[in-house]
Amino acid sequence: MAQLYKRLVVDFEHKDARGKLSQLVHGGFNQVNVLETRAGVTRGGHYHKISREAFFVVSGSVKVDLKNEFGNQTEIFHKGDFFMVSPFTVHCMYFPEDCVMVVLYDIPVGDGGEDIFYSDPV
Hints:
This protein is 0% helix and 56% strand.
């Protein structure tokens, strides 16, 4: 079965006595959001026709159901995981605990919801 998401690696990390810096990317994305979600919430149930959407889990965890013409897949991501969903892949997210994620788009989806197409949850 084809992988319905791509696991990403941060571009750069630096740790010292003060803490840690994680540089997610230094190019290729044009819209960045911070998503804070409470435990028990479901989000998504949509796909994009042109945008690639990447997610970096800052804290908590998320169960992601993915579906496209090649099949279905469910994956659980935790703090520090970084992954990307390609166009035409329906993604529905369930949050078993409070979660904070950074969400990046290579092509902005717009304030009016452009390039967001809703589908039945997977």
